[in-house]
Structure formats: structure tokens, C-alpha cells
Amino acid sequence: MNWRTKTESKIELFSDWLFENAKITIVVIFVLVAGIASQLPSLKIDTTTEGFLHKSDPMRVQYDEFRDQFGRDEKLMIAVKTQNIFDLDFLEKLDRFHHALEDELPNIKGVDSLINARNTYGIEGELIVEPLIDNLPQNNEDLISLKETVTNNSLYKNSLYSEDFRMTTVTIDTETYSNNGASQDATNLEFDDSLEFDDSLEFDDDSIGGQRLYLTDAENDEIISQTQQIMQRFNDDNFEIYLSGSAAIAGIFKQALMNDSVIFISLMMIVIMIVLFVLFRRISGVILPLSCVSLTLIMTVSLMSIFSAPFTMATQIMPTFLLAVVTSASIHLLAVFYKDFAKTNDKKKSLRYAMGHSGLAIIMTSVTTAVGLWSFSFSGVAPVADLGVFASSGVMVGLVFTLVFLPALVSVTNFKVVKQKSSEDEHSLMDRALIGISVFATTRPKLIISVSTVLIICAAIIAAQLRFSHFPLQWLPEDNFARVATEAVDENLKGSLTLEVIIDTEKTNGLYNPELLRVIDDVSKNINSISTGNMFVGKVISYIDVIKETNRALNENRDEYYAIPDDSDLIAQEFLLFESSGNNDLASLVDANYSKARLTLKTPFIDSLEANTFIDNAQIYLDQKFGSLAKVTFTGIGTLMTVTFEEAIYSSAVSYILAFSLITILMVLLIGNLKIGLISMIPNLLPIVILSTIMVIFKMPLDMFTLLIGAIALGLAVDDTVHFMHNFRRYELQYNDVDKAVRLTLMGTGRAITLTSIVLALGFLVLTFSQMNNMFDFGVLTASAILVALLADFFLMPAIMKLIIKDRASL
To answer: SSD domain spans which residues (predicted)?
Structure first.
């Protein structure tokens, strides 16, 4: 008696115990789930860029320090398009729009536009800093004067106005910190919409006093919602309003996530009920599995809430995934139970047989699926790591419910005896198809293997053309207002995203150094020399703009003095004069000690790979330019996007290797033969190779989400292999006949494998109803992988077994 036989015997004994203690088991499980589910309302949602990095990640820590010092770089950018921005009626409406935003929006520091832009000039040696439009123009002369003032200031070009004067911007600067305070109960705290908050029991060490929370998700949502309401009031054909910016896009992602999750779960429930009823033709065959999957889902999501793991774009796939996986496990158990119960009419005996027959295979498939998911838990991308931890935990929770709760429910349920079909009606269409497949696979093994080999080689060649890409904007539909707005701003105003650069002199008043200022000025003018492809810098904003404006104003407003003074004492004096003017723009550009400065690079929203190449080149360029004058580092939302995807690529490679290695070990242990165990993994690589080919043909990139498919597909594909090989080895050792073993395996577990694959495939196909293009691709590709895995297990696996198993006496 080998370990598998012993394990199956133990499972049968456990089944008898469950049958005798079914009611108390059900009560204990319900009490346990109810207790854990009480934490479900505390679940948070995180769709922001910084939320993709672990809280301890150096880039995340650096970004938090940046926010604490200079405020959020995630601003809401509103672009307004018209025939001519220098028009009396337009400026009057822009003024009303500007003040409506200022007066009605909560949790904002201010609103910046043409109406209140900084206008710096001098009168008889006195520095004046005031709003650009103190009083609205009343006639054409006023308009001409305003236009001249605006166009003479290079700071405003591609910032406040487009080159064709048809578009202007209104920027909403939100508060950095939440108004909710840090003293409220931790379970009621929201994740920041900067969505910084990863742990409801911790506060950001870098926030002021270690006590303040960043702007919450709910607060940011409120800003976006009220902004859209105000936009609706003012929008018309000659005042076209576009809402863009990283904060707006994060809000759109969150809304899509919430809407999609409801749709996914609802559709999956419907699919499950239909498939279960068609399969079992019993109400109990629908209710019992649904009870298991529902409790699994509640338990898993509640665990996320308990451990303060937010619901994210990555974990969004988890509910439908768990619904499909746990339903599939239930199908394998109930299919055997109902079939035996029809023969014996003995519930305890049939349950014992079903548990002994399928219990070990269900355990192994759950473990292999969990391992495929668990491999993500080491990812440097926080949502992917959460997916690895909680999806794998959910699979194991589902295993417990399948082998404990489901049998207990079976024990207390009264089943109607269904008469067996007569022998002449015994073989259904599916049975005949499975018999045909078994005959074909065992009589033409060389043909099947040859065709599969050619297919794998060709697919591998095509797959080599796969391209990496991370372009979150393209996850949105082409007609989505945030995507349309962002693309319009990129085209007309040379960029909607910003890369932040911190210049640290590491000494007090280091920013007064004229040499440093000249380097910044030179970098601002020439940084585009390292731009390539779609990447460019449309605007550079820094504190030298303040110095040059002030210097010109104090020198009779003469343009030749729009330059950097040579004397550090004069620079210090000009800083002081500007601060004394009452304008607070300097606070967002330099620190209080004048040791650090912020350099903002305005860029288009493009593929992160292109941006990453630019950042790498720019870092080298800046290090050379600044030398020993200052330490230069990139931060900000734009930078985090590129770092996140780079980390995702590395983490996915590690996950694939880890998943494949662990699953291979489990397969060898299950089969009990090293050679057969290793060879049985070959068909499980076929889905990954075929998927890569599909992606190349349909021009789908390897992005943050499609990178996940390989390990997930491997974990799911192995499930069918485990069920096939578990039953095949049993019959092959019993009858010493490969052909008969294949036929009995397909006739026995083949039906369940087919139906569970259909459930899994349909489970992922519901993702095609998503508003997000990346979810659509993920659903199609994963469903395709499951179906390819099914074909590989039905054709390629039997063919391989037919060729390698010859000397049966030695096995």
C-alpha cells in the first residue's frame, strides 16, 4: 500500500466522521465565517500608482518624503478648448468657472488658471507679485495688453495656453493630507486616493509628526465628483472642458473596478448555476456548490480586510477566479457522489466513495493552483503580491469548504433517487466523444506528438516577437472622457503627466549658488536632447523661474535681466523679496532651508517603457551636469509608473520559475514516478506558448496584467493533468493496459474535467464585460489557456503515456 492509497483510506475515514458530525460541523463553520465576515465592511479600494509599490519600497518612501515636503503632484488638470482664449466672453466665463471650482470644491489648496496666474513686475524698484488678471478685460485694448503680458512670459507657454491660443488649463491643487485626522478608529480609515495607506494600523512615518494621513480615497472621489458636476454646468460648444491628470485617471480606474466587480460576480454566479443545473439536473447540485463558493468568497475578501490589504486592479480578478476554481472542485466530488448514489441509494457509502475517489486529486489540484498563485506573493508590486497571498489562501479556504463543508451539507440533505439509464442509453454524446478521443490518442500517438512538437516550435518562434508594454491610459476605452482629455492635453499642451526631480545640495542655503542655478537653467533648455520616440519634455518648471522673474522686475522690467544673478547674496535677497510679496508659490518649489529644490518635467502620457528609457538616460545626463553641486533623484507619479512595470517584469520571471518548479515536484510526488512526473509537465507548457502566439497575432502586449497569466494558467492547467494522471495511474497499475486506462480515465473523470474547464473558461470570459481593455485581454487569454490545456490533457498526455509506458511490470 503506497502513500496515495493510505491517504485515500484516511480521507474515507474522515468522510465517515463528517457524516456522523455533520450538523455540528456546519454550525461551527457558519459561526467562524460570520465572525470573520464582520470585518468585510472595512475593505478598502486602491487604484493609485503609488499603491502598486510596497510601503517599504525605497521609491515609495522617497515619494512620500516628496509629498510631505512639496505636496501632491497628482493634480486635477482641466483643459478648456475654445476658438480663442483671448476673447471677452470666454474670459468672463473662465472667471466664473474658476471661482465656482474655488468656492465649491472641498479639500483643495487652490485653483490655478489664467485668472490668477502669477504676474511679477517692478515699480520704481519695488517688487509686485499679483494675479495676472486683477480685473477682467473690458475692451479690445485690455485684451491686447493681456495677450502681450501672457505671451511675453515663457513660463505660460504650453502651460496656461496652447501655441494656437485655443486651449487653456485650470489646475486643481488638492490637499496633501486628509481632513479626517489620524485619531479616528483605524477600521474606518480609507485608503488614500494617493492611496498611500496600505495598513490601517500604521501611519506614514514621513507625514508631519508621524500622525497625518494622506488625502483619503473618499475625499478624492468627492473632489472629482463635484468637479464633474461643475464642468457639466459650464460645458458647451465654445467652452469644451476636458478633465485629465493622474488623479482623475486613478478615480476612473476605481469606478471601473467597482462596477466591473459587481458585474463579474453576478455573471459568474449565473454561469455557475446554469452549468451545475445542466450537469446534475438537481436543485441540490446547484445549491450545495454555491454555498461553498459563496462562503469561500466571503471568507477570502474578509481576510483581505482583516490584514488591511486593499482591493486593487490585480485582486479584481480574484472573486471570479475563486468562484470558478471552487465550483470545479465541487463538481469533481459531486459528480462521483451522484453517480454512485444512483447505484447504491446509500448516502454515507456514496459520500465515502466520492471522497476516497476524488479527495486526494482535489487536494493536489488545489495545492498546485495555490502554488501557481502563491508564487506572486514575492512580487515587488504590492497588488500582485496581495493577489498571490490572498488568492492562494482563498483556494485553500475553498479546499477546506469542499472537503469539509460540502460533505457535511451532503450528509444532512435528502436526495431524490434518480433511476440509472439503461445500458443502451448509457453513453451520451459526450461519452461517445471521449471514447473517440481515447481511441485516437492511443492509436496515433506519434502523429499527435509530431504535430504538437511542430506546433510548439512554430509558436515559440512567433512568441519571441512578444513586446513589453505598460500603458495604463490605453486600458481605458478610446471614447472614455479621461482618455480623450489626456490625449487632447498631450497634443495641444505638450504633456499631461509630470516627472519630478529632486535637486538636493545637502546643505542649508545651497540653492543660492549661481553656478547651480545656471546648471538648472541649462538643463531646462537642453534636456530634450536626450528624448526619443514619443517621449519629450514639453515644459520644465523650477525655482529659477522665480529668480529670473524677480531679477527682471527689480531691473525696470527689462528683458535682458530675465537671467540668473551672479551674486549669491543677491539671489538670497531676491528670494526674500519674493516671499515678502505674499505669494506662496515658492513653498512648492524649494524646502524651508533652501537645500532642496523641485524640478518638474512635463511630459506626455506614454508607454512606461519609453518613459523608463528616458529616465535612465536623464539620470545619467543630470548626474553629469550637476556633478558635485547636488544629488539628483527622480520621483513622482510618472516615475513610479516606470519603476512599477520594471519590477513587475522581474517579479513575473521569478514567479514563473518558482511556480513551475514547485508544481513539478508536486506532480512527481502525486504520480510516484520521476520520469512520468517530469514528462507529464510538458503538455502544461503548451498553453503558455500558444497564448504567447495569440498575443503576437492580435498585438496584445505583455503588460502588468498579461504578465500574470503564465503562472495562473500553469496552476490551472496542471489541475486537469492531476485529475487525469491520478485516475490514469490507478487504472494503468490495476489493468496493466494503457489503452484501457486512458479510456476508463476519460470516461470517468473526463466528463468532470471537461465541465470544470468550461466553468473556468466561462469564469474568465466574464472579464470581457469589463470597461477596461486590460481586463478584456486577461479574460480572453486565460480562458484560451484553459481550453488549450484541456486539449493537451485529452490528446497529448495519452499519446505520451502510450509511448513511454512499455515495461509495465517495472512500474
So the answer is: 293-412, 648-803
Residue 99, CA atoms < 13 Å, CB-side half-sphere:
6
Q: In terms of Cα–Cα distance, which of 472, 483, 392 is closest to 704?
A: 472
| Residue type at 532 in one-letter notation | T
Per DSSP, 164 falls in state T
Altogether, the residues listed in the chain come to a count of 811
Cβ neighbours of residue 4 closer than 8 Å, sequence gap 6 or more: 360, 670, 672
Question: Rounded to an integer, what distance in angstroms lies between the CA atom of residue 17 and that of residue 407?
Answer: 10
The secondary structure element, H or E, covering residue 234 is helix 217-234
Q: How many CA atoms lie within 13 A of 200 on its CB side?
A: 21
Following DSSP, what letter does each residue of 499-563 receive, concatenated?
EEEEEE-SSTTGGG-HHHHHHHHHHHHHGGGG--TT----EEE-THHHHHHHHHHTTTT-GGG-S
CA distance 613 to 619: 10
Strand boundaries in 577-673, DSSP class E: 596-603, 631-635
Distances (CA, A) of 209 to 182, 201, 205, 710, 711: 11, 16, 8, 44, 43
What class, spelled out in words, does domain 3-47+252-415+431-465+643-810 have in CATH? mainly alpha
| Overall pTM > 0.70 | yes
- For 700, the grid coordinates are 496584445
Q: Which residues pair with 84 in a beta bridge?
A: none
How far is Cα of residue 346 from the mean position of the Cα atoms in its chain? 49
Question: Cell 521609491 identifies what position?
Answer: 59
pLDDT along the chain (811 residues), means of 10: 80 94 95 93 82 86 89 87 95 96 93 92 89 89 91 87 94 85 38 37 39 75 91 95 84 81 87 87 91 94 92 85 89 90 91 92 89 86 91 95 95 78 56 90 92 89 85 88 89 90 95 95 93 89 93 92 93 92 87 94 90 93 95 91 79 81 84 81 84 88 82 81 85 88 88 86 88 88 90 91 68 39
The domains of the chain are located at 3-47+252-415+431-465+643-810, 50-62+71-251, 484-642
| Cell matching residue 169 | 488649463
Question: Residue 685 carries which DSSP code?
Answer: G
For residue 294, the 8-state DSSP code is H
Per-residue b or e along 538-563, where b marks 16 or more CB atoms closer than 10 Å to that residue's CB: bbbbbbbbbbbbbbbbbbeeeeebbb
Task: Number of helices (H) and strands (E) in the chain: give both, helices first.
Answer: 26, 10
Q: In whole angstroms, what is the distance from residue 69 CA to residue 56 CA? A: 18
Report angle CA 105, 111, 112 to the nearest 5 degrees: 165
